[in-house]
Amino acid sequence: DEEGRGRAELVTMLSGFLDTGTDGMEEAVESLLERGLVTEDAGARLRMTPEGHALREKAYARVARASAEIHEGIPEAE
C-alpha cells in the first residue's frame, strides 16, 4: 500500500509465515532493497516499487495457476 510498512512490522509479519527467524527475514528485506523491489524512507518505512508490484502480481498468478492445478477435478464440496 502507499503507506508502506515499517521494517520491524514486516519482519515480524513474515516471520510468522516462514521459519527463518528474524535474522533471515532481515536478510530477505535487504535483498528486496538491493534488487530494487522495495524502497526504504528515512523513517524505515518500506514501499514496493513498480518492479516489486509487477513481481508480486506475477507470483500471485503463478500461485493461482498452481492452486487450480492441484484442485482440478476435486468437487468444491470436498
UniProtKB/TrEMBL annotation:
InterPro entries given in the database record: WH-like_DNA-bd_sf (IPR036388), WH_DNA-bd_sf (IPR036390)
UniProt key word Ribonucleoprotein: no
DNA-binding found in the keyword field: yes
UniProt-recorded Gene Ontology molecular function terms: DNA binding
Alphabetically ordered keywords of this record: DNA-binding
Protein's recorded name: Winged helix DNA-binding protein
Source organism (scientific name): Streptomyces sp. SID7499
